[in-house]
Amino acid sequence: MRATAKIFWILGVFFLIVAIAYGFITGRYEPLGVETVGFPAMLALAALGLMIAMVLSLTARKHEIEAMDDLDGEVAAEAGVQGSFSPYSWAPLWAAVGAALCFLGVAAGWWIFAFGVIFAIYGVLSWVLEYSTGQHAH
User: How far is Cα 30 from Cα 45, in angstroms, rounded to an integer?
Assistant: First the structure.
């Protein structure tokens, strides 16, 4: 986790430097001033990288050294269960269809966006509640 935090610190600082340079160059050479989409997007990218780096650094302080941070560690130290996955779940498909329709709806028509929201809500709710047995399960 410490190596991942360092990578995100480097990425965050890099994108911040690039965003400042981009804002300076577009502000100086563009007739309308600083570009209104790219500059804030790069600043947001830098902020996201720095936020992830901060969370990973704080988490690494709280926990002991993991196998990936041990310089003498073996690959077998990371063996074991990595997560719980549903191999026959249809929920990710419906969530992806909903996201695709939402993106298409922004470009083609807002009525498509409404169908995308319906599919996305159904997909996300079924994905989240997939293993829920309910309050009164026996």
Answer: 22
121/118 Cα distance (integer angstroms): 5
Residue-wise pLDDT tens digits, 32-48: 888 888 999 999 999 99
Burial class (CB in 10 A: 0-12, 13-18, 19+), 131: exposed
> What are the boundaries of each domain within the chain?
2-71, 91-128
Name the more confident of 137 and 24.
24
Question: Is pTM beyond 0.85 here?
Answer: no
pLDDT digits (tens, 9 = 90+) for 77-106: 778 877 777 888 899 999 999 999 999 999
For tokens 């600083």, what's the residue? 34
- The Cα 40–Cα 35 span in angstroms is 9
Tokens representing residue 132 in the block? 């829920």
CA–centroid distance for 77 within its chain: 27
Q: How far is CA 56 from CA 23, 48, 81, in A?
A: 29, 12, 21
- Nearest to 106, CA basis, from 96, 97, 116, 93: 116
